[in-house]
Amino acid sequence: MVKSLAESAALTSIPSDYTYSTKPIEPATSDIEDDPIPIIDFSLLTSGNPDQQSKFIQDLGKACEEWGGFMLINHGVPENLMKAMIEACKDFFNLTEEEKREFAGKHVFDPIRCGTSVSGRVDKILLWRDFLKIIVHPEFNFPYKLTGFSELALEFCKRIRILFRELLKIISKNLGLEECYIEKTMDLESGFQLFAANLYPPCPQPELAIGIPPHSDHGLLTFLTQNEIGGLQVQHNGKWVNVNALHNGFFINIADQLEILSNGKYKSLVHRAVVNNKATRISIAIANGPSLDTIVSPSVELVNSESHPGCVHSNEI
């Protein structure tokens, strides 16, 4: 595990296998005054005030179209539950390597997979992170280690699925579709949900290593929360922008299958995770998608005569 490597007293530089770049990774733009990451207040939707609800709908549509991601605040998931999830993930990563090895899966669709950068090779470069990935819907799986971890995760993932479906109703309307179009065509009752916890230990040469390289997510929407340590960066107008977590907020990004369904109106957000040499970052990403039997293709209503739509089976990406 990278955690054990990082805790080695003799480590002063990264092994060559972890060198992602021989030049310092391009610094992020942490503050773009004209283009701050959108903040969406979920309480406006539930306020009962038509003007506030209209503002929420407009703000969400603009964020999806212009950024492909946004911070969601006042979402109703209890702060103590979010904090407890981060702490429980920390406790899991603190288990011995032998204990964690019990959950080492071999296939991408194994219900539970615990691993490290070896499972995330990109051009033979190892990633500076350890991970725990679990399929939590349509069937809930979870490691039996750590008292209460499974119960916390079950409640956490249920609440996110509720938010996910509510947001997709508004997204569906913003795309000019029926409110329940996405929910029905994507068979969200049996939708796929993946719980992914990532641990990024301090790195002696963070400018040369990478936690996760630039990528977009599978599925429809991904929800992310993290501890107080930054590291998530998103690509916007050709620049990298730091995502500084708001207190008790989720960062939510558009994923590949929503880009396909929207016929490209909403773009899947490219993002990456960088590392630091001072503190351990822990993030929890919950990826939400259609059922694995669903064929994802552009909505007929969004396809015009000049479009060349494609389609993809949900278990192929």
UniProtKB/TrEMBL annotation:
UniProt family annotation: Belongs to the iron/ascorbate-dependent oxidoreductase family.
Single Gene Ontology MF annotation: metal ion binding
Record-linked SUPFAM superfamilies: Clavaminate synthase-like
Keywords from the UniProt entry: Iron, Metal-binding, Oxidoreductase
Gene3D superfamilies reported for this sequence: B-lactam Antibiotic, Isopenicillin N Synthase, Chain (2.60.120.330)
Name this polypeptide is given: Fe2OG dioxygenase domain-containing protein
UniProt superkingdom: Eukaryota
Keyword Nucleotide-binding annotated: no
Metal-binding as UniProt keyword: yes
Species lineage: Eukaryota, Viridiplantae, Streptophyta, Embryophyta, Tracheophyta
Domain Fe2OG dioxygenase: 190-290
InterPro entries xrefs: DIOX_N, IPNS-like_FE2OG_OXY, IPNS-like_sf, Oxoglu/Fe-dep_dioxygenase_dom, Plant_2OG-oxidoreductases
Source organism of this protein record: Nyssa sinensis
Pfam family, one: 2OG-FeII_Oxy
